[in-house]
Specification:
By secondary structure, the protein is mainly α. The protein is 74% helix and 0% strand. The protein has 3 helices and no strands.
Length: 46
């Protein structure tokens, strides 16, 4: 989903969603959302 779609679904601002995603991606050590999703699948989180 796009940041805008996630924001609308959760009743958050798009900026807040971007910040949360950026922090989560950083904590995982991933370079971007695609890499983070790949890592999540490998770990069985998705």
């Amino acid at each position: 989903m796009s940041s805008g779609d996630i924001a609308a679904e959760l009743s958050l601002s798009e900026g807040t969603v971007r910040n949360y995603l950026s922090e989560a991606i950083s904590m995982m050590g991933a370079g971007n959302r695609v890499e983070a999703a790949r890592m999540d699948r490998i770990k069985g989180w998705l």
